[in-house]
Amino acid sequence: MAILLSSPTDDPVAWWAALESHLGPVDLRVWPDALGDVAEVEFALVWEHPPGSLKRFPNLRVIFSLGAGVEHLLADTALPEGVPVVRLVDAHLTRDMVEYVTAWVLYFHRAHHRYRAHQAEALWRPLPPVAATARTVGILGLGELGGAAAAALARLGFAVRGWSRSPKSLAGIACFHGREGLGAFLGGVDILVCLLPLTGETLGIVDRDLLRRLAPGACLINAARGAHVVDADLVAALDAGHIAGAALDVFHGEPLPPRHAFWHHPGIAITPHVASLTDPHSAAGEIADGIRRFRAGFLPRNVVDVARGY
Ligand code: NDP
Ligand code: OXD
């Protein structure tokens, strides 16, 4: 059995060591230079692979995404037919995303965005404290990451709501679902967190209309994909003062171009797509489990529903 690694950003040496620590000796083929006999490749680990390239492996059994988001993988219209695509679900990835979201929720909750603006004017102005219980945090997406973030924020005492595609019942979280539940979900949200997958249904969802429905002075945290947000609508809502701050980890084009309006907007805080990074050792454990399951005649866990897009 040979395993293909096709990623412009992942270190093959780190992946090879991580895979061997879980699977024993591994015949790793690295795109594009070290492919050997392509007929021997049964499993592919991919992140931003060249579209059409996976067709070159006639005996591919499973495609593993090295990230949780699979929109770029599914955008390849020449994926080998009938080969399951598995997205990454991993405790390390979830823990880091929970940290990222919690850090920004606390930042906005404790009004650090406002104190930074005051500092720029050498202004000493204590603001009245607000209890976490009086702050409504809304999470778009109640999956692996959104669900874990919601639970952590509820433990901190926030009034947490979540929105998903299908109905859910989660302890301590007010759950809403579907387009018909979106309006009720948004009304009164003080801090909105986007943790949706990018699909035809969620593209551009954070637009003028959605932002207008949040509580006045609301803040936005986007750690999902840049294309969830309509950039011009966000800037307009910030400039109008309806939205008080935004923390953005993901962008339409990455790296964010130097001339993009977001860089110098006083209401926007930027991180360079680092909310939660795939850790080879931890992720290789999940991939090894998927390979073992496949070899035992079962599908790996977390197979993507291609029609649904996530
Ligand atoms: P999941 O697939 O586990 O969860 C997705 C959630 O979104 C589910 O609750 C799903 O609803 C909901 N959803 C999907 N489509 C819709 C819709 N049309 N309307 C309402 N709800 C919808 O994904 P993860 O939590 O693992 O990951 C979420 C995203 O986070 C990834 O796709 C990726 O883009 C991003 N990400 C970003 C990282 C970063 O570093 N910035 C790192 C890792 C991931 P339902 O439960 O009903 O299916
Ligand atoms: C992911 C990501 O999808 O890193 O895992 O964005």
Keywords, separated by commas or semicolons:
310 residues; alpha/beta; seven-stranded parallel beta sheet; five-stranded parallel beta sheet; 31% helix; binds NADPH dihydro-nicotinamide-adenine-dinucleotide phosphate
Walk me through the topology:
Elements lengths: L1 E5 L5 H12 L3 E4 L10 E6 L15 E4 L5 H4 L10 E2 L4 H19 L2 H9 L15 E5 L3 H12 L3 E6 L9 E4 H9 L4 E4 L13 H6 L4 E5 L8 H9 L3 E6 L19 E3 L9 H16 L15
Parallel strand pairs: 1-2, 1-3, 3-4, 4-5, 6-7, 6-9, 7-8, 9-10, 10-11, 11-12
Helix pairs in contact: 1-9, 3-5
The protein binds NADPH dihydro-nicotinamide-adenine-dinucleotide phosphate and oxalic acid.
Read across the widest sheet, the strand sequence of neighbours is 8-7-6-9-10-11-12
Point out poorly predicted stretches: none
Structural class: alpha/beta
**What fraction of residues sit in β-strands?**
15-25%
Biggest sheet features: 7 strands, parallel
Structure summary, number of beta strands: 12
Order of helices and strands: EHEEEHEHHEHEEHEHEHEEH
Percent of residues in helices: 25-40%
Tally of individual helices: 9
- The value of Rg in angstroms is 21 Å
Ligand list: NADPH dihydro-nicotinamide-adenine-dinucleotide phosphate, oxalic acid
Q: Average pLDDT value?
A: 98
Sum up the overall morphology in one term: elongated
Distance between the termini: 28 Å
